[in-house]
Amino acid sequence: MGRLSELFEPDSVAVVGATDREGAVGRAILENLSTGFAGEVVPVNPNRETVLGHECYPDLERAPAVDLAVVVVPPPVVLETLREIGETGIENVVVITAGFSETGSEGARRERELREIAEEYDLNVVGPNSLGIMSTAVGMNATFGPERAIEGGISFMSQSGAFITAVLDWANDQEIGFRDVVSLGNKSVLAETDFVRQWGEDPETEVIIGYLEDIDEGAEFIRASRDVTDDTPIVLVKSGRTDAGAHAASSHTGAIAGSERAYETGLEQAGVVRARSVQELFDYARALSGLPVPESESVAVVTNAGGPGVLTTDAVGDSTLEMASFTEETLEGLSESLPEEANVYNPVDIIGDADADRFAEALDTALADPNVGSAVVVSAPTAVLAYEDLAEVVVETRDRHEKPVVTAMMGGQRARAPEATLRESGIPNYFDPARAVSGLDALARYRDVRRRSRDDPATFDVDRERARRILERTKSRSGNQLGIESMDLLEAYGIPTPEGAVVDDPESARELAESIDGDVVMKIASPDIAHKSDIGGVKVDVPDAEVADAYEDLIARARNYQPDAQILGVQVQESLDLDGSTETILGMNRDPQFGPLLLFGLGGIFVEILEDTSVRVAPIGETEARDMIDDVKASPLLAGARGREPANTDAVVEAIQRLSQLVTDFPAILEVDINPLVAGPDDARAIDLVVTVDTEEL
Amino acid sequence: MGRLSELFEPDSVAVVGATDREGAVGRAILENLSTGFAGEVVPVNPNRETVLGHECYPDLERAPAVDLAVVVVPPPVVLETLREIGETGIENVVVITAGFSETGSEGARRERELREIAEEYDLNVVGPNSLGIMSTAVGMNATFGPERAIEGGISFMSQSGAFITAVLDWANDQEIGFRDVVSLGNKSVLAETDFVRQWGEDPETEVIIGYLEDIDEGAEFIRASRDVTDDTPIVLVKSGRTDAGAHAASSHTGAIAGSERAYETGLEQAGVVRARSVQELFDYARALSGLPVPESESVAVVTNAGGPGVLTTDAVGDSTLEMASFTEETLEGLSESLPEEANVYNPVDIIGDADADRFAEALDTALADPNVGSAVVVSAPTAVLAYEDLAEVVVETRDRHEKPVVTAMMGGQRARAPEATLRESGIPNYFDPARAVSGLDALARYRDVRRRSRDDPATFDVDRERARRILERTKSRSGNQLGIESMDLLEAYGIPTPEGAVVDDPESARELAESIDGDVVMKIASPDIAHKSDIGGVKVDVPDAEVADAYEDLIARARNYQPDAQILGVQVQESLDLDGSTETILGMNRDPQFGPLLLFGLGGIFVEILEDTSVRVAPIGETEARDMIDDVKASPLLAGARGREPANTDAVVEAIQRLSQLVTDFPAILEVDINPLVAGPDDARAIDLVVTVDTEEL
User: Where is the ATP-grasp domain (chains A, B) (predicted)?
Assistant: First the structure.
């Protein structure tokens, strides 16, 4: 893939399919490109000599060389146009034309071909079915939309063209500026990860925002975003969050929906700040594009209005922020400068007769406090407070400190001009104090992203070849599952299991039992019998002397229950003393977008009724494995709550990491269910296992 | 208390403390009252002959009779002014003057006196420390704020004057109209419940909204609001939701904070729709003031933009609403009228080339569907869609159906004029589809309020006198607690307990044990020993023959552990077979604002670690008692999840109701802790008990 930056900063752009026909998309694009763009615009259309005053060329070969081609020809002609583009040596293409995978199987076939051509010629293709792209740096509007972005630091991608037009009209009204805007269309070639990488390297992009309905390659997206978010925040609306929404999204774009749970953890692991609505997206973007990242989560609130001050404090309580505790010095400073009736504790209430100067003094004192990471200025209109003056002193005061400040100048008309003053200095103003706090909270969440620990997944010494051989057993099975007879799969990856094995005659069973201390547990081993207990296929506390009989009995029961079941034998397992241990569940489900999704929870009602589980996309490092345990509400039980003996959580953390390595090493593993993984004071041991394998992937 | 409606519709208003001094509050009020108010305005000030052209009177006695007096005299003169008002026969007063309970003990004393005078003369007093009141019906602005409300159907009360000025400037900008506006001030006499009652009876008030920092008399507020919300919705921001916010609120108004948990359930039981922010308050109010209440929670979404359609669907998924499933007829109708590429399933995507007529047709078909309760129209700007036309056809189409419609015409400038068209027809427009849905959701939540079951608390046949005698035992105790020796308190109210009693010699213990079937449980009974098990003060499965010895042993242990402990004897109790039973916890805590707050949860980790409990303000009826069980996440365990024997939940429901009756009958009971209440297949029995009593209240 060539340099993507040329897509946004071309010296010349061809419009293939340009026309002057009223209402045609090929005209709208040419018109938009002819306004404000400093580079050359080259219409291509075999049926015209000129279009809208530009000289028109019959094909790309005969046209001047360009950096970017925008394609608006009818669907059947798109593929040959792309070949022509490839032959001419143009690298960057935006395909506006619709009628591809969004329209059914014929379109999907055409889109596959489009992708092949792009690969053959190494083309950067946006679309098809795209509204186009904009780049305010070069004044380029290569879209057919009715709105043009103003210049700013937000780079914006959207899987919905309508979302872009809807937002731009509003954003222009609010004077919110953009750097690049991309309508992703069907994402046949270039997708979200490519733009994340591109904008991550672009020093002028202050924040990357997006509206997405799916993410094509989750693991790749996580990797790229992790790097980018070290320097550049990413805020995304990923729709289809709810079941209803996911259904609507899949009928809109035809995307195969990954699970919302995978998206939730995947985006979090990627360092993405997630927004739930258009408003949140821009509330966050405004804070993230102009403000420095705070050094702490502690917020000072300065207000002339008690009630709104309390509301602001509530919003802080709802967020990841906390109210700052002022130093003695700050409290003294505030007491000296403020009237007696004022409240010098946070939220600082400088009371209703405050003018702008009193705001300035209080804000200055608060921002100077080392315990204060950021500040919110909240004001209600009064006779003595000029909002214009307030805006100016807020800017001045902020400039003396390296700390983020947001404002909630409440009001309508009277807040408009002051708001512009603030905006020019990078200070976002919000009507609602709760929204001001949520903007600051996005900044604090981004701070956490920057500070997150980034331990690489551990690589344990495992027996990968042995694991492969065990997985290959499924090839000789009727189903594609492995069960307790394959506990050695876990052993190969160092996840402890009880002593024992599957044997296929009574005598071996007896011998094995004798080699194991104490009584044994015996279970029927059959890939076809899922609920062993239900058919009496499990015997506990079997003394050595009864093992041979028990073997015969178990086999008989299984045969009786399901005559055609494939019976592998009987598992003879050490009898564990589970007193003082906690049953946990450790599993994995492969998500279509994000790949291996690890799941952890406490056994029994905790998973089944309370749905108290945590998930992460593998591979994960130690910190994330530990977080998986801590995220579970019942985790205090593992730590020894209510007089229990504390479990060895380090052993659980290691088991999670080892499973992470196993499922990362073998994409053929579709599902793992270790239920239970028994966490005791000394170790964590897998007692039962079901593994589902895609035998074709092996 | 006199007629409150006269407060809002006076024929004449006196301003006591009126002045023409620049910047004085007494001038600002007179100026505001002189604009737009049709009635007579009477300035009172002994030092002036005229004020701002009005004839001024030295005192109320010599002034013409008025319906309402607004008091802006200095704090020391307020009380004598109130007496004068009382003597003159004026019933309605707004005290603007500050310097009362918000300023410390001297002010609090003055406020108590103010309240006494108000009682003596039966005055309706708003304030003190109030911004004033407005009534658009008579054009009266009796505030000193810079803004004046425009006419509409929202009646608005606020415990913060600044909140009113902050909101009005913005609301005027949005053309949101009000009926009455009240700055509650210190709520010395008139408080939220009075205005809820007043506006509940006012046919012109479409919705009651408020900003509150506390609620004075929770039980009374619940009663009044329950009645009012049958006809008029109430939306409240109650700030101090979070710990930080509650702290800030108490330093702002000096209010004693009730627990957020009590507010949450109390407001819910009152039928109040709660908003968390200014924006939500008005998003909800706009929907609740203009739209009919929907007949079902099913929503149709009609849009020209796929992406925003998906976002809208997500917002529906987040709400109490659900996406409507269209009838076959509707699907056919939509298929016939829409282009082939459109999506006729909900969300209906009428695609990007839709004009207003196509919107009208699709909306009309959707609203005609009996499965559709309400609709959201979501639009992105396109070249072929005129927003003005869209607004008009939405109004026309809506007028043909008795169903609520909201719009999210996304955009800035271009949405402004159409928004006014919609507003005039009572259709709220929101920029963000998520906010449009949340407005509709407020309406659906209000629908639930109207439909809630209103079963009166049951009155069981109980032995109230016996209960009183038992409670009075605390008077002879060192502490104010009752324990297991007082299980008969529960018996008096019909809550089952195991067979047994507290006895105070070994022989009685043996006799009692013999009268009980099987072994017994024995527990030391002492108000001074809280954790009986920890000191070996509990013996289980004691055979009759060992009871006497066990008695001696328990007494010895207690004496040894705490020589000065008051020892009441030993409880000898029937040994219950708890297999197949579930331990629950049933309790009560008296909240300063809302009174008896019942609590229910499952025992052990569920309450202690998972904090899985539900609460209600007593008294409650059967439905609410049942809801308390259902609200607990672990409740499926009671219903027989995971192969358990189902508990008799009816018995638990009855125990909750009986406790509700007990704590309602005896306000002296401060706390009750029935832990456990064992719920078995047949009954629910209280096994242990701690009751804390306010002996002075008995």
Answer: 487-523
Q: Which residues lie closer than 8 Å to A273 by C-beta, 6 or more apart? A: A233, A234, A235, A236, A284, A288, A442, A445, A446, A449
Measured distance CA(B527)–CA(B566) in Å, rounded: 7
Residue B619: cis peptide before it, omega within 30 degrees of 0 = yes
- pLDDT tens, residue by residue, A144-172: 998 899 999 999 999 999 999 999 999 99
Percent of chain B at pLDDT exceeding 70: 98
In chain A, whose CA is at the least distance from the CA of B99? A341
Selecting from B171, B244, B308 the residue whose C-beta is nearest the C-beta of A163 gives B308
Compute the Cα dihedral for A396, A397, A398, A399 and give only its sign: positive
In a domain, A199, yes or no: yes
Closest residue in chain A to residue B306, using alpha carbons only: A252
- Report which secondary-structure segment, H or E, holds B569: strand B569-574
Cβ count within 10 A of residue A179: 24
pLDDT digits (tens, 9 = 90+) for A408-440: 999 888 899 999 999 999 999 999 999 999 999
> Residue A434 and residue B276: Cβ atoms within 8 Å?
yes
d(CA A293, CA A275): 18
Angle between helix axes A649-665 and A464-472 (nearest 10 degrees) is 70
Looking up residue A330, the CATH number of its domain turns out to be 3.40.50.261
**pLDDT score at A252:** 61
Q: What is the mean pLDDT of residues B646-655?
A: 95
- Residues B508 and B489 placed together within one structural domain of the fold: no
B83 and B176: one domain? yes
Q: How many domains does chain A have?
A: 4
List alpha helices for B235-327, DSSP H. Answer: 243-253, 260-270, 278-290, 306-318
Rg (CA), chain B: 32
Which of the four pLDDT bands, split at 50, 70 and 90, describes residue A2? Answer: very low
Q: Per the CB < 8 Å rule, is B316 touching A413?
A: no
Cβ of A410 within 8 Å of Cβ of B172? The answer is no
User: How far, in Å, are A205, B16, B51, B286 from residue B54 at the CA level?
Assistant: 63, 13, 5, 39
Residues B135 and B33 sit within 8 Å (Cβ to Cβ): no
Domain-terminating residue out of B575, B592, B607: B575
Domain that holds residue A588: 453-498+576-698
Residue B238 bridge partners (DSSP): B212
> Count of residues for chain A?
698
| pLDDT grade for A407, boundaries at 50, 70 and 90 | very high
Examine the domain organization and report whether A557 and A443 are in the same domain.
no
Tokens for B548, please give them: 């006497």
Which domain CATH number covers A509?
3.30.1490.20
Q: Is residue A271 in a domain? A: no
Same domain, B513 and B644: no
Residue-wise pLDDT for A611-650, tens only, equals: 899 999 999 999 999 999 999 999 988 988 767 789 999 9
What was the ipTM of the complex prediction?
Answer: 0.91
Say yes or no: A562 and A421 in one domain: no
**Tell me: the pLDDT tens digits for B362-395?**
999 999 999 999 999 999 998 889 999 999 999 9
Q: How many angstroms separate the CA atoms of B351 and B338, rounded?
A: 9
> Which residues in chain A are contacts of B640 at CB distance < 8 A?
none
Residues B623 and B666 in one domain: yes
Q: Which of B575, B609, B636 is the last residue of a domain?
A: B575
Which of B143, B164, B311 is the best residue to mutate to test the A interface, defined by the most A CB atoms within 10 Å of its own CB? B311
pLDDT tens-digit readout, B89-128: 999 999 999 999 988 889 999 999 999 999 999 999 999 9
**For residue A258, is it within any domain?**
no
Q: Decide if B254 is inside a domain.
A: no
> Same structural domain for residues A98 and A162?
yes
- A141 and A232 assigned to the same domain: yes
